[in-house]
Amino acid sequence: MTTPADLETDAVRLRAAMAGNLAARGFLDDPGWRAAVEAVPRHRFVPGFYLPAEDGNDGRGLTRWQPVTATLDHGRWLAAAYSDATLITQFDGDEPDWENPAERHGGAPTSSSTLPSLVVRMWADAEVREGHTVLEIGTGTGYSTALACERLGSAGVTSIEVDGRRLEQAASALHGCGYAPTLAVADGLYGYWPEAPFDRVVAACSFRAVPPALVAQTRPGGKILLTLSGWLYGYARVLLTVAGDGTAEGRLLGGTVSFMSARVHAAPAFGNPGHWAAGLPGEARVARHGPERITAATEDAFHLRFLVQSAVPDAQLATVGDVVHLVDVVSGSAATLTPDSDGDGDGGGGWRVREGGPVRLWESVERVLDAYDAAGRPGPETFTLCVHDGGQHLRHPRLPCLPLPSP
């Protein structure tokens, strides 16, 4: 039987090993953040979580998610708590009963403890320093909040969470570990005016565009680090510097980081793809680009998915069999891409496209892809996001200005 003393001894050893691993991989160059990782007991913030079953899906294409707690499997629980992995703590907004947890089949994760390497990377990328006041959007389990408190002191940290049940559990863990940040149930879209202004704003969820309230609540010269996303599940991170006139500007950051969408910005349900396809014209044209340009498991495709969202911000993508569907619930437009057995077009054996509605969805995507190729396929670090009274735009010296959706 594991005693509390044994647990804490094992946890200290595992924390030191995790910190050493993160440092060896280049995530803990700052001694202050390494000390925080070595000090904060992550297991106290994840009493229960889900891991995918080793045998994969359930035969229906749905991932089998197994609950993991100290009671069910102490060794697996503690080892996972100190692994560099994201631990899913909630699906579809439903709070699990960790006293009697049940296996899940499929579902959309809505809360998690983000992998530690990404947590410390976010704090480091935001250029957080001693003496800064920080707003964290998305308390989640509270582990990231605890690292900030350990590094900055609790008085400088404000963390908000839209889910009151999540925040209650995080608050209990934080206070149990001796941390006392300002905590509030609030929607990150609107920041948290009572504690503003802030030197740094860091979001652990993604937004379709930069919420204006975050710019207004950041001191001139302060920085905002957040992830931008869209309904095509393209992502980009940006570090903005706020100016005295209320505008903000900053470069996109590299890498393939993604976060769950802020719930207010999540993609809406679009119904049955077959219903949308039934109303399309019968004639199909040869596609200049195939869907693999934005769906492949590559950094280039990851970046392109984000860029093409500027052209079709309300489009969603679904694959049924070998047919790729684009659906826009706002305009009523739709498109399908079907493999072309004649081998014409771009990508694999080529593709044929049918599209209808006020917006030619795939034609709009192809225009972005054409411009991207003509510009030499520039990486994310070459794009600048400008936030001003006239909207939010991605700018690049060799590409047309790309607007973000209205926030």
UniProtKB/TrEMBL annotation:
GO BP annotations, alphabetical order: methylation
Keyword Flavoprotein: no
GO MF annotations in UniProt: protein-L-isoaspartate (D-aspartate) O-methyltransferase activity
InterPro entries from the UniProt entry: Methyltr_grasp, PCMT, SAM-dependent_MTases_sf
Keyword S-adenosyl-L-methionine: yes
Domain of life: Bacteria
GO cellular component term of the entry, any: cytoplasm
EC number(s) per entry: 2.1.1.77
Subcellular locations according to the entry: Cytoplasm
Class of this enzyme: transferase
One protein family per Pfam: PCMT
Location (main, coarse): cytoplasm
Homology family: Belongs to the methyltransferase superfamily. L-isoaspartyl/D-aspartyl protein methyltransferase family.
Family matches, as PANTHER family: PROTEIN-L-ISOASPARTATE O-METHYLTRANSFERASE (PTHR11579), PROTEIN-L-ISOASPARTATE(D-ASPARTATE) O-METHYLTRANSFERASE (PTHR11579:SF0)
Protein's name according to its UniProt entry: Protein-L-isoaspartate O-methyltransferase
